[in-house]
Amino acid sequence: MNDESQNTMGSPTPEELREQVERTRDELGRTVEALAGKADVKAQAKEKTEAAKKQAAEKTAAVKEQAASATAQIREKTAQAAQAVKDRTPDPVQEKTAQAATQVRESAARAGQFAVDRTPDPLLEKADRVAKAARANRTPLLAGGAVLVAFLLLRRGRGGNK
Predict the structure, then answer these.
(1) How many domains are contained in the chain?
(2) Is 141 a member of any domain?
(3) CA 13, chain centre distance (Å)
């Protein structure tokens, strides 16, 4: 009877005490895990590195997508401009231009053959090696040429302003 009177007066039962202890253990376990996670600097650095890598990859993908879109727009506008010029050019001018282009190609081919016929073999072999090297390294050569042209245009533009 004494036991029952204590239960009704607000004393917890052994089962309630066990549940309370179990809840406290769970909370304490979560707290310890959180503190351990905050104390693990190496893991935090790794997480931040992974997050930065993911963010950089996303930004790179976005920039590539924008560049591809811009390139497509430029190509489309260039094609439209070329078509507009062609549409506005009278047929006789187009025909004369085509004839002139053909004559230039033929003259260049003849001049090239003449140069090959008159050039010594060792020089032709060296020129062939240089041409092969240029084809193998096309991108750096084009980039260098673009930089040179930009430099010359800037230099020319500054010279005219003085």
Answers:
(1) 1
(2) yes
(3) 67
Distance from C-alpha of 122 to C-alpha of 128, rounded to nearest angstrom? 10
Instruction: Quickly count: other Cβ atoms within 10 Å of residue 127's Cβ.
Output: 13
SS3 99: helix
Residue 155 domain boundaries: 121-162
Residue 149 counted as domain residue: yes
Helix, strand or coil for residue 120?
A: coil
Per-residue pLDDT of the chain (162 residues; tens, 9 = 90+): 444 444 556 788 999 999 999 999 999 999 988 887 777 778 778 888 999 999 999 999 998 899 899 999 999 999 999 898 888 888 888 888 889 999 999 999 999 898 888 888 888 888 889 889 888 988 988 888 889 998 898 888 887 555
> What is the pTM (predicted TM-score) of this model?
0.34
- Are 55 and 48 in contact by the 8 Å Cβ rule? The answer is no
